[in-house]
Amino acid sequence: MVCSPLPGGETPQRGWQFPREGVFFAADFPGARLTDCASLGADAFEAVVRPENLPVNDSPWFAFRVRSEREKKITLRLRCQGGSLRYRPKISLDGAQWVLLPEECYRPDAERKEALLTLETGPRPLLVAAQEPVSRVEIENWAATMERLPFVTRSTFGSSVKGVPLLRLDVGNSAAEPKVVVIGRQHPPETTGSLALMRFVECVAGDTELARRFRAEFHLVVMPLLNPDGVDAGHWRHNLGLVDLNRDWQGFAQPESRAARDQILALGEKGGLLLLLDFHSTFRDVFYTQPDSIVSAPPGFTSRWLAGIGTRVPDYRAERKASPTPTSNTSISWAHRTFGIPAITYEIGDHTDRTQLRRVAMAAAEEMMNLLLETLGQPSSKS
């Protein structure tokens, strides 16, 4: 499929000033996206967001700042061109604590692909975003913190279209033949995927008997941010090459997917690769897997893993769906086709409760460690 750039490839506008109303909008930070803004009079404004190119997945990302010279309420008509409003906005004053805009301040119009927002503004800038952002800087800072652990090594491999080095963490015994690969953030707006990936890795790096036994026997390789350019640019779906990276695992036309492929192929040269997990976000929690009828090694891992997550989190039932056909161009189809291993897309819902997200991610890590230790003949533990 050929993707066409939208008109106006010039540097996007980063700020809009309305001195008469004393209101100012800005999209001048990494991950920001706001295409245009106009005054409608009487403290009413219109904001437009467009994707990086078309066609594109209907997951419109927006993130911007708004402030006013004095405390007041404004209304903002938020419109999407090339998509519909998938996310009810979240707001923050400090970029760290985010709350969902309440229903009484959000009136969507699905037919017109827009919503009317009521925002309380003041001299202190208010951040408005589709989801709480998980920026490239935040992921890099998290990786640098993880590196302080004695059994974690941070490095880079390859680079993005823009030349940003791609990040890699090695956790556990790097000399161990059994290996697990975790990748994430092929799609820029999918921040709940990043949140779950970080909690998953932190559990493997945790101070428990189970984690210590796993790290002694296994090598976990984490590539947490495969699309840093798209994240920085506030893209809806694609990298700077205007390609969906998770549809490039056949032709490998993009430097990010080629670099990830080469890393995984090198890891699998000796036949020790056991599992690939690819973290994403969608409307609800779901795991895309190979059917049990398709032979994978270790055998029966996927069904036992998902059942074990449900046992560890009794109020949670993982939805399971068949992955695309074995010949498709997604990461998990390529990994299963190449190595015959379980390869699973771990999708987290946009609005999954963040405490539940953490519980499930930790349960997923614990159950993975238990099951893979069993393949080495070590006794199971439910710690």
For this entry, give a set of tags.
21 strands; alpha+beta; 25% helix; Aminopeptidase; Immunoglobulin-like; elongated; 8 helices; 383 residues
CA-atom Rg in angstroms: 22 Å
| Beta-strand fraction estimate | 25-35%
Number of helices: 8
Tell me the number of strands: 21
Description:
The chain is 25% helix and 29% strand. The protein is of the alpha+beta class and 383 residues long. It folds into two domains: 14-129, Immunoglobulin-like (Sandwich); 136-375, Zn peptidases (Aminopeptidase, 3-Layer(aba) Sandwich), CATH 3.40.630. The strands form four sheets. The protein has an eight-stranded mixed sheet with strand order 14-15-17-16-18-21-19-20. Helix 6 packs across helix 8 (354-375). The longest helix has 22 residues, at 354-375. It is elongated, with a radius of gyration of 22 Å. The termini are far apart. The model is unreliable at 1-10 (pLDDT under 50).
Secondary-structure map:
Blueprint: E1 4-5, E2 15-18, E3 23-26, E4 36-41, E5 44-49, E6 53-54, E7 63-68, E8 72-80, E9 90-92, E10 99-100, E11 106-109, E12 114-121, E13 126-129, H1 136-146, E14 152-159, E15 165-172, E16 179-184, H2 191-204, H3 209-217, E17 219-223, H4 228-233, H5 255-267, E18 273-282, E19 286-289, H6 301-312, E20 320-322, H7 331-339, E21 343-349, H8 354-375
Parallel strand pairs: 5-8, 16-17, 16-18, 18-21, 19-20
Antiparallel strand pairs: 1-6, 2-3, 3-7, 4-5, 7-13, 8-12, 9-10, 9-13, 11-12, 14-15, 15-17, 19-21
